[in-house]
Amino acid sequence: MKIALVSDLHGNMTAVRALEKDLDRRHVDAVWCLGDIVGKGPNSHMTFDWAIRHCEMILRGNWDEGIGLRQFKRDGFYYRQLGEARMAALLNFPLEKRVMLSGRRVRLIHGRPVMDRLYYIQDSRELWLPLLGEDTDLLVYGDCHRQGMRTLTAQIANIGSVGNAMGVPLVQYAILAGVPGKGSAPLDLVFVTLPYDREEAVAEALAQPGLPDLDDYIRELRTGVYSRKKGSFGKKEEVL
Q: How far apart are the first and last CA of the chain?
């Protein structure tokens, strides 16, 4: 079974269209999304609809939950774009999935809100061990938008971001291939980096007046450097 693991689409349909072409070429058996299908980018309604159509499984990310709960007053742009039905659906996505592949116990999460904060692959062993426990051989997550892998008492893999990749500003995702069930067999995890037209993505953003933090978002698309300033989210949302 060959599964495409994608995460952090973040309203960037230019990147998602490039992803879709690559998935068609690779003939994967399923697409699983590890969350954050909305927010940051200009077309959250479109990336939401794409994920619903193409992904067999979608997890709830921190942006999905924050927007679904209307946590920040500044995010009205996304609320209006998504509409009530999509907003409600964001909160119904599960927080994690567990699967047995090639005899390996695989746990999939977005990161936050399961994690108490943003975790990076290189964070301390003591921080990671409680998330691994004795029932996980491979933990796969998104959230920090940077691909990487590490081995502690289990393996930890970050699959990067489709629509808002940091470090290397390309479409980032992964392919997990193994045999369903408890039988011992090879388990492959392949990181994919995919070029796409970032200037077209910039034009996509410029075509949506009122996108929050537009300049920071464009800088992230072009450079892969995180650009939002601490505290830029403002106050928690009041009842609308």
A: 45
The correct CATH number of 2-222 out of 3.30.1330.10, 3.60.21.10, 3.40.630.30, 3.30.70.920 is 3.60.21.10
Residue 13: which of 43, 57, 55 has the closest Cα?
43
Distance of alpha carbon 202 from alpha carbon 15, whole angstroms: 11
Q: Crossing angle for the helix pair 44-54 and 76-90, nearest 10 degrees?
A: 20
Among the listed residues 23, 77, 80, the one whose alpha carbon sits nearest the alpha carbon of residue 50: 23
Per residue in 5-42, pLDDT tens? 999 999 999 999 999 999 999 999 999 999 999 999 99
Q: What residues have CB less than 8 Å from 179, skipping those under 6 apart?
A: 1, 101, 102, 185
Q: For 159-177, write each residue's pLDDT tens digit.
A: 999 999 999 999 999 999 9
* Burial annotation 112-139 (CB, 10 A radius, 16+ → b, else e): bbbbeeebeeeeeeeebeebbeeebbbb
Cα gap 97→13, rounded to integer Å: 26
